[in-house]
Design goal:
Belongs to the eukaryotic ribosomal protein P1/P2 family. P1 and P2 exist as dimers at the large ribosomal subunit. Keywords: Ribonucleoprotein, Ribosomal protein. The protein is built from two helices and no strands. By secondary structure, the protein is mainly α. 0% of the residues are buried. The protein is elongated. Helix content is 75%, strand content 0%. It starts with a helix and ends with a helix. It has one domain (2-38).
Length: 40
């Protein structure tokens, strides 16, 4: 759900046409959140 939310926020933030780099950034941040929650 966090990945979907990040994707939607990117679109709502004014970036209507996402590039591969934008998606990699969104997914990388989601992975960091997941790893951070596992290590706690």
């Amino acid at each position: 759900m966090k990945v979907v939310a990040a994707y939607l926020l990117t679109i709502l933030g004014g970036n209507a046409s996402l590039s591969a780099k934008d998606l990699k950034t969104v997914f990388a941040s989601a992975i960091l959140v997941i790893v951070g929650s596992i290590t706690r």
